[in-house]
Write a structure and sequence with these properties.
This protein has 466 residues and is an all-alpha fold. The chain has one domain (2-459). The protein is built from 23 helices and 4 strands. It has helices spanning 2-25, 51-62, 84-95, 99-125, 129-140, 143-148, 155-175, 178-194, 199-212, 219-245, 255-263, 274-279, 283-291, 295-303, 306-312, 314-330, 332-336, 355-382, 391-399, 402-406, 417-433, 436-443, 450-459, and strands spanning 33-34, 66-67, 76-77, 342-343. The chain is globular, with a radius of gyration of 23 Å. The model is unreliable at 41-47 and 458-466 (pLDDT under 50).
Length: 466
């Protein structure tokens, strides 16, 4: 009963904060403040449509995932982006009168469910109602998540799918269950279909779950359902890509393209414009790539230049990896313009946000990052005895940033947003450990921890976790 009441409180706080922001400060135009960037605009001064907007329009009007991809002179059938969010946005544009507002209110719902998922994950991973409640509240009130709710991009959806994957995987890894296992596989597949860079994490999470199923009752059936959910979630798009390009492409074919952007001599560890991308290549090589009509083969050819570029300039490569890591955490704009957020007034001739909001938000965002990072680091260290039950969180901390560290990050905090929920869970563990009555059970281990498992083995009891 107490768990249900606290989760309802978390849902109410998350939904109220997001609903108030969307209702008070957004209309059918751009979001007033952005921490990731919305798909209809490249910048407000030109009002030029982005490549994601072109993909949404193509799906809406032609039911085809086509647009002008990087290193292409004309529109083509493409797989350089994950299709998940574009497909949902296209369905809203096709069938609804006010698709942008519908998508924003969908974000309100998904953002609220994200807070609930992290409540459930932290509650089960650390066997503590206090940690779960604190994690849910921190996610519900996280200013980056609240601002991201009004943006038309994949941030809210990717964050929700990651939270669902962690919550379902942790529950299924302890108790099994056919429905839980199937939903876990589908959530992991959906996460990869929304952000292709998260496919390595999704794959490793499923592999961990399959290994974990050896320790639970009827684990073979749970493992089978998880695998089928994951495989069937990816299979239709993978078959489409194979028929289109003649190559096995699970989600996106642009991995080598992003590795080139992050590792070429003219790269910075951040994003690169189409003009900058073309300048990074010798003219002869550029013409060879432009002449290749098969997009997957074109990016594969680009990958052949990648290793010589790294070998010839190892110092520059390592510096770009360092900058990519910093940009992943803070965003490139924090280093170039000293900001975590971009106001709508900088992009469009919409009504600017009120002055008090413009003054408050930078302090909230900076304070959130300043508090989240050290608390998460301390929580990761203090939760060592809970490493088995919180295994998926540790996998996420390593494998979510890795594709960006090897390639490049972005101008704002978009790549980092899904990971914030995991860091806030570790931060909640730290805060709970500061309460004298809870510190003994949490920091020294309790039911479900590695210390308890060792004690059970010594006394002859069966271990509870892998």
């Amino acid at each position: 009963m107490g768990d249900a009441l606290l989760m309802l409180m978390v849902l109410a706080v998350a939904g109220g904060a997001r609903g108030w922001y969307v209702h008070s400060f957004t209309d059918d135009g751009p979001a007033p403040l952005e921490v990731q960037g919305s798909y209809p605009y490249v910048d407000g001064q030109s009002g030029k449509k982005s490549e994601v907007a072109a993909l949404v329009e193509s799906l809406t009007d032609k039911q085809s995932f086509a647009g002008r991809a990087p290193l292409a002179d004309q529109e083509e059938t493409t797989a350089h982006r994950a299709p998940g969010y574009c497909w949902i946005a296209a369905q809203a544009a096709r069938w609804l009168d006010q698709p942008q507002m519908v998508m924003r209110w969908l974000h309100v719902v998904l953002g609220s469910l994200t807070a609930a998922c992290y409540f459930l994950f932290a509650r089960r991973a650390f066997q503590s109602l206090a940690v779960g409640f604190l994690a849910g509240l921190l996610v519900a009130l996280h200013p980056f998540y609240i601002l991201n709710t009004a943006e038309l991009n994949d941030g809210v959806l990717a964050t929700f799918l990651l939270a669902a994957t962690l919550a379902l995987g942790t529950r299924g890894g302890q108790e099994g269950g056919p429905v839980t296992s199937l939903l876990f596989g589908l959530s992991a597949a959906g996460l990869a279909m929304v952000r292709a860079a998260l496919l390595p994490f999704a794959t490793l999470a499923v592999l961990w779950y399959l290994l974990r199923c050896r320790k639970i009752k009827k684990g073979w059936f749970a493992a089978l359902l998880a695998f089928l959910g994951f495989a069937n979630g990816l299979a239709p798009w993978a078959v489409r890509n194979f028929r289109t390009f003649g190559h096995p492409v699970p989600v996106a074919d642009s991995a080598l393209l992003h590795l080139w952007i992050g590792n070429c001599r003219t790269g910075s560890g951040g994003p690169m414009s189409e003009a900058g991308l073309r300048k990074s290549l010798p003219e002869k090589r550029l013409q060879e790539l432009l002449a290749e009509s098969n997009q997957a083969r074109r990016y594969t050819l680009l990958g052949r230049d990648l290793l010589p570029e790294i070998v010839d300039n190892p110092g520059g490569t390592l510096q770009r990896r360092l900058w990519a890591g910093l940009y992943f955490v803070f965003g490139q704009d924090w280093f170039t313009r000293n900001t975590f957020v971009e106001p709508a007034a900088a992009r469009a001739t919409e009504t600017p946000p009120p002055d008090w909001l413009l003054e408050l938000v930078p302090a909230l965002l900076a304070g959130a990052v300043l508090a989240m990072l050290p608390l998460a680091l301390i929580g990761w260290r203090w939760s060592y005895l809970w490493r088995r039950s919180a295994r998926l969180a540790a996998i996420a901390v390593i494998w979510l940033p890795l594709p960006y560290l090897l390639s490049h990050a972005d101008l704002l905090s978009g790549p980092r947003l899904p990971l914030d929920g995991v860091l806030l869970c570790y931060g909640a563990f730290t805060l709970a450990c500061l309460v004298p009555g809870l510190r003994h059970d949490l920091a020294r281990g309790g039911p479900g921890s590695a210390a308890k498992e060792k004690k059970d083995k010594t006394s002859g009891r069966p271990d509870a976790l892998p």
